[in-house]
Amino acid sequence: MTRARLPREVRELLETSVGSIEKIEALRHLCRAEGPVPRAELARAVRLERETADALLGDLASAGLVEDGGGDTVQLGAATASATCDELMRIYEEDRVAVVSTLSLLSMERIRSMAMRTFSEAFVSKKKPNTDNNHS
User: Fold this and answer.
1) Residues 9, 92, 68, 19, Cα dihedral to 10°
2) Alpha-carbon distance 19 to 8, whole Å?
3) How far is CA 102 from CA 6, 55, 118, 131, in A?
4) Which residue among 8, 53, 102, 129 is least packed, with the fewest CB closer than 10 Å?
C-alpha cells in the first residue's frame, strides 16, 4: 500500500492530528488497554520521557483523540470512535511501511513548504531603497 492508496481521510488524519509514529503508538496502546492508562505507563510504552509524552498527549487531546481518564490517567477520546481512526489503526497493523512512508512524505512536504515560505519572505523583506525625498 502506498501513500496514494491510503484513504484520503486517513492521509488527512495523519497530516492534521496524528503526525508521528509516537502518536500512532500511543493511540494503539490506548486501544489495546480498553480503558484509562496511567500517563507514566503510556510514556514507557511509547519509549518517551514523561514530559515529551505529556506534550504528545496534549496534541492528541487537542484533536479529541485522547482525554483525561481521571487521576493521572488518559483514555481514548471521542474522535477515536470514527471509522477513519479505526482505518488508520487497521492499516498500521497490516502495513506499517505504508504509514511510515506517508508520514515521511508529509514531513518532506512541510519542510519544502517552510523553505519556500522562508525563501519568498527573504525577497519580500529585502530593504527597499529609500524613496523619501527628505534629504538632510
Assistant:
1) -60
2) 15
3) 8, 23, 24, 49
4) 129
Per-residue pLDDT of the chain in tens (136 residues, 90 and over written 9): 444 579 999 999 999 999 899 999 999 999 999 889 999 999 999 999 999 999 999 999 999 999 999 889 999 999 988 899 999 999 999 999 999 999 999 888 878 877 787 777 777 766 555 555 655 5
The DSSP result for 1-60, as a single string, is: --GGGS-HHHHHHHHHT--SHHHHHHHHHHHHHTS-EEHHHHHHHTT--HHHHHHHHHHH
The grid coordinates listed for 23 are: 502518536
CATH number of the domain encompassing residue 67: 1.10.10.10
Rounded to 5°, angle at Cα 2 from 88 and 42: 35
Determine, yes or no, domain membership for 16. Answer: yes
Q: How far is CA 3 from CA 16, 18, 86, 106, 113, in A?
A: 15, 15, 17, 10, 19
